[in-house]
Amino acid sequence: MRSDPQRLRFEIGARDGAARTGTIHTAHGPIETPAFIPLATKGTVRGLESSEVAELGYELILGNTYHLFVSPGPERIAAAGGLHSFMGWERALITDSGGFQVFSLAHGGVANEVKGSGRSGGEHGSKVEISEEGARFRSPRDGAELFISPEVSMQVQAALGSDIALVFDECTPFHADREYTARSTERTHRWLDRCLEWHDREGPTRQAVFGIVQGGVYEDLRRESAQAVAAAAVDGLAIGGTLGRDKEEMAAVLAMTAPLLPVEAPKHLLGIGEVDDLLGGIALGLDVFDCAVPTRLARHGVALAPSPETRWRLDLRKGRWVGDRSPLVEGCPCPACTRHDRDYLSYLSRAEELTAVRLIVLHNLVYMRELTRGARAAIAAARFEAYRAAVLAGAPPWSA
Amino acid sequence: MRSDPQRLRFEIGARDGAARTGTIHTAHGPIETPAFIPLATKGTVRGLESSEVAELGYELILGNTYHLFVSPGPERIAAAGGLHSFMGWERALITDSGGFQVFSLAHGGVANEVKGSGRSGGEHGSKVEISEEGARFRSPRDGAELFISPEVSMQVQAALGSDIALVFDECTPFHADREYTARSTERTHRWLDRCLEWHDREGPTRQAVFGIVQGGVYEDLRRESAQAVAAAAVDGLAIGGTLGRDKEEMAAVLAMTAPLLPVEAPKHLLGIGEVDDLLGGIALGLDVFDCAVPTRLARHGVALAPSPETRWRLDLRKGRWVGDRSPLVEGCPCPACTRHDRDYLSYLSRAEELTAVRLIVLHNLVYMRELTRGARAAIAAARFEAYRAAVLAGAPPWSA
To answer: Mean per-residue pLDDT for A66-95?
Structure first.
């Protein structure tokens, strides 16, 4: 770990067991934690203008290095003055490294689809060549050969000008065996060093860098990885890679991994953001969580709701909402819930109207904001476990 | 014409040649005219929440009887308390009769596509049987047989609870000959009587009814139709049917038809709303104009701009905007223009992001609002022809 308040400063506020509140200070303002990070995969949060995302209360969004590398390309974004300026976002930005997407193309197993593309592989084929140097692959846009290495990833993220860059790592799939995972984790550590070297030499002086802890489902590998990353000059840590094949295994891997990380570091759980998983992460002392689910669900007419039995999902495309005059979720302060009923929202979703996608995105992001806001208040009041239990039992976050 | 201020009252304000300002008072508030009417085809203005449309300054929107009849159906909307309440719109609503869409299915010629469906005919075939009684056709949604007659159209519009209903007419295609047009226009007049009879007996007491003047491109038929409609107990008039095969013929047909209508009536030019055509209609004393173009263009990345040479269209999907740091339209007060540049908007459009569609819808509706607002101010200042000439020469509406 390094400590450079010019890049990033993390203050821990209240503590409640391992859970804590905090503030991450970045070059583009503070982030109150625990926080959910909406995805601005391709330079916009689905259907929302940047100023609207800020009005919702979000202080940090995630731009996707792989997608922005493919199109419109780092040169064009740099020419616009960086991603903040390109998309008109004035608050903090984190960028992933592109590793997840590239290795999803290669392994296929981690995610069924390349996040954000909506189809796996892309029309120009998905062959990826991985070597010590980096990963070579074909652009899903035009078939052109592209190459991402630790240095290229950091260079692209420098061009994007994010406040927090993530190092380039190999995201091992859940079907990888111990031997593959061990070799891959070691390479990820060598890539970590190359990322930091490049960044130290050529990175933006105010850009923080988070290292990524890999090691799959293996405790000793996770321990080695946590030590290697914590020993490096990173400004924070992220937990990446496979977390197992189901929620139980994920909870176990996280419970084993989280205590291995330095308490004082801001911690990012990569790609996880379902209601129960996020609360589980907060309980373990993790601070920020990005996830495509809240915005991706909206595209399919699915809204977040306080119903554990359906994994907090309410499918508006079902026929059962016809004539239902109740709001999507009683008490929710979002525009979909305060101005419309389930009958209309369900009709709009089935009619595939853009207005439906937008209203559900707004709802889902308000829901996630309320969930983390409630968690922060509960931690400050030393009642986080009661809050978590209430939400897991089906209470909406604003009254849990 | 009838005069019933409970239903509708039209006050003419300033006059400048045939052009005039006015106020249409409806059961859901006033509409300052000349006005552009955004389409809420299927119960939402593309990508916008109803409250946003009101915030843009619009006082009247158009719901589509054909589409809402097919889905979700008048019963469901009536059960919600009518279309205002179903979609959360508190201002005035006009509904078309469904005739245009049904006869587009039959004739194919008026519009290349059924408005709002994006494809002609629909997957279940487009056969329409037209008889004196009405039109029988298959639902494009599920193939079920549907029937619209003058009475059914008025009944559906009564269920929708619009402030202004349009009578059911046959919209003759531009390739119809004089004989067909003459017979069709006479039937439209018989249908007018049936609409008014039904409405008189069973229509909502505060719903106004506009008659539709047909007659194709034939002056004598237009004259007969204008007389027939003006003699009926309607609250206003609309000009429908083919207006010719190009803009020149349309201008000639309108110039010949408009003076045939009673001066004191509020007048709706159906389906016309391109910048030059709308100004031409205002010059002839027409008051309200609905058109799919501003919202439909947005779906294809096309924004309105002060460029007569491209028919006021700026195609953001073209490559030439890469790196262009100017706003979409200099001086435009919309969020797309005040917060973003052409480079970013062009990128978003090419990436087919919902945010692009929404930003361009907002821009195009602000542009149309500014165009009619400028026209009203110019008429009040007795300089409408100077305003029109400036806009036609390429001035933006806010400085013409």
So the answer is: 97
